[in-house]
């Protein structure tokens, strides 16, 4: 159930659903998603579905990982990317296989520790992880990122993240208006923020403080 054939079937499905970026497809064919979930769920790792990862959280559906990564790459690759919500670390591993420098923060200590171990086992050394509240962005406020991705839904774009987005940078995040959630692409232009509202999505909420 974790064979290359099973993985290829998932990649074909992603293509049928509109994922066309070859780099994203290639990386998702290679990164072993089954190593990021509990052994008891490994046989379902290449289904296009979210799965529980404990602590009331989920590993994002492969389509969503591919879709968000593809959005981040629409205007070139950029050097650094900040992820809010490391979770099990699968999206982090996909990003680390594409971007030169990846930074990711998680509020639940146990998930942060597990992700750290898994990413080290996969020898993805271009990743820096922190156990911290992502609403405040990366703990060093002077850092600027070319791309920011948030894997939990919030009601408005956190100001600290806007401040850490480079000029010309892109941020992709689900925004919750109380009724539903919309994937939103934010571009920081010299004249201000440009917000494109995209698909309706379902994410766990961004929570304040440490878990
Ligand atoms: N990309 C992850 C998604 C996990 S779900 C994966 O595929 O595994 C979203 C994650 O965001 C959860 O792990 C949750 O604990 C985390 N999260 C929620 N609010 C947060 C916050 N304020 N700061 C950092 N992480 C947060």
Would you mind describing this structure in some detail?
This protein is of the alpha/beta class and 211 residues long. It has one domain (4-201): Rossmann fold (3-Layer(aba) Sandwich), CATH 3.40.50.150. It has helices spanning 4-16, 22-30, 62-72, 90-96, 109-121, 159-163, and strands spanning 51-54, 57-59, 80-84, 101-106, 127-131, 145-150, 165-176, 181-189, 192-201. A hairpin with a 4-residue loop joins strand 7 and strand 8. The protein is globular, with a radius of gyration of 16 Å. The model has no long low-confidence stretch (mean pLDDT 96). Bound molecules: S-adenosyl-L-homocysteine. S-adenosyl-L-homocysteine (SAH) is lined by residues 53, 57-60, 84-85, 87-88, 90-91, 105-108, 111, 133-135, 151-152, 204, 206-207.
Total domain modules: 1
Strand pairing plus helix content: what structural class?
alpha/beta
Query: Helical amount among residues, as a percent range?
Result: 25-40%
CATH architecture: 3-Layer(aba) Sandwich
Query: Could you give the distance between the termini?
Result: 33 Å
- The arrangement of helices and strands along the chain is HHEEHEHEHEEHEEE
Under CATH, the topology can be stated as Rossmann fold
Low-pLDDT ranges: none
Number of helices: 6
Cα radius of gyration in angstroms: 16 Å
Largest sheet data: 7 strands, mixed
CATH superfamily: Vaccinia Virus protein VP39
């Amino acid at each position: 159930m974790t064979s290359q054939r099973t993985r290829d079937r998932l990649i074909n499905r992603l293509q049928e659903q509109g994922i066309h970026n070859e780099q994203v497809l290639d990386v998702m064919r290679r990164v072993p998603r089954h190593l990021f979930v509990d052994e008891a769920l490994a046989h379902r790792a290449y289904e296009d579905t979210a799965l529980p990862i404990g602590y009331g959280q989920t590993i994002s559906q492969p389509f969503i990982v591919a879709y968000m990564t593809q959005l981040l790459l629409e205007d070139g690759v950029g050097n650094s990317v900040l992820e809010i919500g490391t979770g099990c670390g699968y999206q982090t591993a996909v990003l680390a296989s594409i971007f030169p420098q990846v930074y990711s923060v998680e509020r639940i200590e146990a998930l942060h520790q597990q992700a750290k171990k898994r990413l080290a086992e996969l020898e993805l050394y271009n990743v820096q992880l922190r156990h911290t509240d992502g609403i405040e962005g990366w703990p060093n406020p002077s850092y600027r990122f070319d791309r920011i991705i948030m894997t939990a839904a919030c009601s408005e774009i956190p100001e600290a993240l806007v401040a850490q987005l480079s000029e010309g940078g892109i941020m992709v995040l689900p925004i919750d208006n109380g009724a539903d959630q919309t994937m939103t692409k934010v571009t920081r232009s010299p004249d201000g923020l440009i917000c494109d509202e995209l698909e309706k999505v379902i994410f766990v909420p961004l929570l304040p403080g440490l878990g």
